[in-house]
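Minimal example, chain plus flavin-adenine dinucleotide.
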Amino acid sequence: MSVFLDRLPPVRGKLLADEALAPFTWFRVGGPADALFLPKDEADLAAFLSQLDPIIPVTVLGAASNVIVRDGGIAGVVVRLGPAFGKVAAEGMRVTAGAAALDSRVSVAAANAGIAGMEFFSGVPGQIGGALRMNAGCYGRETKDVLVEAYALKRNGERVTLKNADFRFSYRHTEASEDLIFVEALFEGTPDKPAAIMERIDALKARRETTQPIREKTGGSTFANPDPPGTPNQRSSWKLVDEAGMRGARRGGAQVSELHCNFLLNVGDATAADIEGLGEDVRAAVKAKSGVELRWEIKRIGRPAIDATLEGYLAKDA
Ligand SMILES: Cc1cc2nc3c(=O)[nH]c(=O)nc-3n(C[C@H](O)[C@H](O)[C@H](O)COP(=O)(O)OP(=O)(O)OC[C@H]3O[C@@H](n4cnc5c(N)ncnc54)[C@H](O)[C@@H]3O)c2cc1C
């Protein structure tokens, strides 16, 4: 048992010290969590948070399909929600989904119940908690269009309800407090025939297969489009990246995708620093070419690796 774990409240789930995070992330990069907490259920998570020293940072990860975990790992406690948070149930035109449910499961459950409007979820490879945080969406629909309300735990463990308007959603962004851990959401759609909805889901999946590198080690769209959807002559990030000559550009083991140049790839042995550095190369090239400052859509979290020279210097002193 590590010294850090000894200072954390008791749990019914699992608490692991120095646990590698890279295997959980889509990019397959990044350092360990000081502590990884896999709560048994919501009561376990709430009790842990209520007793945890407020000085200790808490980070929650979903499917980690939209993050670069930096090479030095994440300080404090990383929370990953397990099966107890993965339930999905449909009633009438509404779907209740746990924050750890995969978005694609929610789209299929809705389709089977004859609820239209959630087809877009089938194209987002994350979990519902990540969808709430990112206002995930595709092909003209996003989380805000179907969300009624969501339930979250505050940093002190208290459960709160957020109505759709409380999120102040915008393109791939919400104003909901960063320290909330979403645990469940309620969505609403409109009636349609299950077969018709499934057909639209299949079409959406097929379109995605041919236009995005969905089987690679990636983090999805790297930069948010600079103009909100619906803007006349909307500029796309991928177009700006292409015009800046960055399609296929490389840094270490990281590469800008040839198929969709708003995607960065780990093409083998990339570090998080390679991927983030390549992203900054792209931003600089786009700024120089078109004057646009691209905004990172991917969340970059955690500590940079300790510089090898500094590490050697500190070891010598010890
Ligand atoms: C191949 C590929 C294609 C993609 N296509 C799309 C697309 O079409 N549209 C789109 O919108 N996105 C897309 N993405 C990005 C990504 O799938 C979405 O942003 C998704 O919503 C992230 O969910 P996640 O569970 O993976 O979140 P993570 O990547 O784990 O986390 C993202 C953020 O959400 C927070 N978070 C996660 N869970 C919770 C929780 N329970 N409570 C509070 N905060 C939480 C994290 O702290 C972090 O800040 C794509 C990604 C990939 C790899």
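Residues 26, 60-67, 81, 99, 123-127, 129-131, 133-134, 136-138, 180-182, 212, 214, 218-221, 299 surround flavin-adenine dinucleotide (CB under 6 Å). The chain has a mean pLDDT of 94.
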